[in-house]
Design a protein that fits this description.
The chain has 154 residues and is mainly beta. The chain is built from one helix and ten strands. The protein starts with a helix and ends with a strand.
Length: 154
């Protein structure tokens, strides 16, 4: 039995040691939160990944309930620096992310309360939202705590 396990264990260990990034520590931090509003009735979630002191990934979902019996409407954004459809511009306190084809942009900036995700510069909602849904103007993702603060357009 020992003769069978030893080669398999050795191969697994060699594979692990040869894998990219083994032994390197990446300074990665994930911050996430959720929110809900009664008027207009909407809820959402936001998550950012910070790697090596830079914003590396932004994920955001906003949900609007539909009529009774329907699924509702969603806005969804999921971008990372690896995605070639978006251009990232680093700023002193965060990043500006823009679409390469339509020129829509949003920003994520750090402040003393957390990270402020601003969608005010997005003109083409159809890229991110289904019919009947819209993005909030801003979402504050706090440094600590699980509740976002979202500013919903009137």
């Amino acid at each position: 039995m020992k003769n069978i396990l030893l080669p398999g264990l050795a191969i697994s260990l060699l594979s692990l040691l040869a894998s990219p990034g083994f032994g390197q520590q990446s300074d990665e931090k994930v911050i996430s939160c959720i929110y809900g509003h009664k008027k207009p009735m909407t809820s959402g979630e936001a998550k950012i990944t910070i790697r090596d002191n830079k914003i590396d990934k932004i994920a955001f979902n906003n949900y609007y309930p539909g009529m009774r019996g329907s699924l509702g409407y969603t806005c969804s954004i999921d971008v990372s620096r690896e995605n070639s459809d978006y251009a990232w511009q680093d700023m002193d306190t965060g990043a500006r992310v823009s679409t390469k084809d339509a020129g829509d942009a949003f920003t994520l900036s750090r402040n003393k309360k957390g990270y402020l995700l601003s969608f005010k510069s997005i003109n083409t909602l159809s890229r991110f939202c289904g019919a009947g849904a819209e993005l909030p103007d801003d979402v504050l993702i706090p440094h600590s705590g699980k509740s976002c603060i979202a500013k919903i357009p009137k």
